[in-house]
Design goal:
The chain is α+β, with helices and mostly antiparallel strands. The chain has one domain: Glutamine Phosphoribosylpyrophosphate, subunit 1, domain 1, CATH 3.60.20.10. It has helices at 48-59, 64-74, 123-134, 139-152, 186-209, and strands at 2-8, 15-21, 31-34, 38-44, 81-87, 92-96, 105-109, 112-117, 162-168, 174-180. The strands form 2 sheets. It has a 6-stranded antiparallel β-sheet with strand order 7-8-1-2-9-10, covered by helices on one side. Strands 3-4-5-6 form a 4-stranded antiparallel β-sheet, covered by helices on one side. α1 (48-59) packs across α2 (64-74) and α3 (123-134) packs antiparallel against α4. The longest helix is centred in the last third of the chain and has 24 residues, at 186-209. The mean pLDDT is 96. One of its GO terms (molecular function) is hydrolase activity.
Length: 224
């Protein structure tokens, strides 16, 4: 019930994920990022604890294959899980258990990894990776381009309702963490939110690290 992608930008050190699903609130339980270390996507019949464990293992220095092996080893029901792991070197590892739903696929690309289940066509994932690899914009744009390509290639077998975009940079928190929890066109809505947020993104980081130099919020009551 999900298609997703994780990617890294070697120039900036950013890691990010983008995801969409026919289920509600997909971004609350499937994408996990360890800033500067990598990303984990846990989906199909989702166990969010696998994402949390994967982040800890990436932070401990395990590579993608090592993290995936530990996740599968520690999961009581690996046959129900679909996992993608991306590490700091851009290496990836994937797992689709025997009970992965419907048409499903994973694809390991250059500095990215993508996967999905209940797909309209297995070529959806190929289209996502191709779009990511051919886009030369910043990481968030590359991830959104991949999602748009996946949707254009058929997306899920049924309509999608939720989506999310998450990117970490030099800060220890996600500098981009945008969600659409329920919408008739969640990826279009997600892009609108991203385009609205982008001009303000750096100001929110500055407010955290250097509030004396931060710009005003431009709202009533803020007279700086």
């Amino acid at each position: 019930m999900t298609f997703s992608i994780a990617g890294v930008c070697r120039e900036t050190g950013q890691f990010g994920t983008a995801i969409s699903s026919s289920s509600i609130c997909v971004a609350s339980r499937c994408p996990f990022i360890a800033p500067g270390k990598g990303a984990v996507l846990t989906q199909n019949v989702t166990n969010p604890e696998l994402g949390q464990l994967g982040v800890r293992l990436l932070q401990e220095g395990l590579d993608a294959e090592g993290v995936l092996a530990r996740l599968v080893e520690n999961e009581a029901y690996p046959e129900w899980r679909q996992l993608q792991v991306l590490d700091a070197a851009g290496r990836s590892a994937v797992h689709s258990g025997a009970q992965t739903l419907g048409i499903h696929a994973t694809r390991q690309g250059r500095d990215c990894v993508a996967g999905g289940n209940m797909l309209a066509d297995s070529g959806v994932i190929d289209a996502m990776v191709a779009a990511f690899e051919s886009c030369d914009a910043e990481l968030a744009e590359r991830l959104l381009a991949a999602m748009d390509a996946g949707l254009a290639a058929g997306g899920e077998m049924g309509p999608v309702h939720s989506a999310g975009l998450k990117v970490t940079d030099r800060a220890r928190w996600p500098v981009v963490d945008l969600r659409v929890d329920w919408h008739v066109a969640p990826l279009s809505e997600l892009r609108m939110i991203w385009e609205t947020y982008l001009p303000q993104r750096d100001a929110y980081v500055l407010r955290a690290v250097c509030p004396d130099d931060s710009p005003s919020y431009g709202v009533p009551g803020d007279e700086r």
